[in-house]
Amino acid sequence: IYLPWIQRRRLAFAKHRHVISGILQHAQMQALGHLLNDDGTPNENVIRKLFYKIDNDDNHDLSRAELHALIIGINFEELDFDKNDAVDKIMDDFDTSGNDTIDEGEFVEGMKIWLNEAKRKVQASGAYTNKFINDYHERTREEHDQLAVSDEEVEPVENPGRMIVK
Q: By its UniProt entry, which Pfam families does this protein fall under (predicted)?
């Protein structure tokens, strides 16, 4: 039995990972090439092309509005989440300078971190193929669905200090 606040945090984390996987899957479809090189390292040239494709106003920075448009364009129909919260979490992951925009270097580094995390999570499916992004997306969807179902079943513990496990 989980405490309700722990379950809510786990569900929020699962949603965040599913949003990441959805963005990677969308990036895979929109990219002008493979996101990974043959040796499994992130392809920086393709990631840069993707950055310029997302940068609608050509100012070499991604604003919150551009990220919001990206998330709306992906259409996460199976997932109910606050899109502004997703933008905030993406900004937290990518904006290392703290200027409330994501420049090209921050975008490339953030995407490399996300791609490497995805490779670690689904190594068995052949991490150097583009199929691993789809496998990662399916895995995060399953994790989210599993937590969403178990979230409905969680009953609060009245006095967690007195809980005894036998």
A: EF-hand_7 (PF13499)
In 3D space, the residue among 49, 29, 166 whose CA is nearest the CA of residue 108 turns out to be 49
**What whole-number distance in Å separates Cα of residue 26 and Cα of residue 28?**
5
| Residue 124 pLDDT greater than 60, yes or no | no
pLDDT tens figures, 4-46: 777 778 777 777 787 788 788 777 777 667 787 777 788 888 8
DSSP structure string for 142-162: HHHHHHHHHHHH----S-GGG
Cα separation, 51 vs 103, whole angstroms? 9
For each of the domains in the chain, give its residue range(s) and CATH number, in order of start.
4-153 (1.10.238.10)
Q: pTM for this structure? A: 0.72
Q: 102-103 and 61-62 as β-strands: parallel, antiparallel, unpaired?
A: antiparallel
- Residue pair 70/23 in contact (Cβ under 8 Å)? The answer is yes
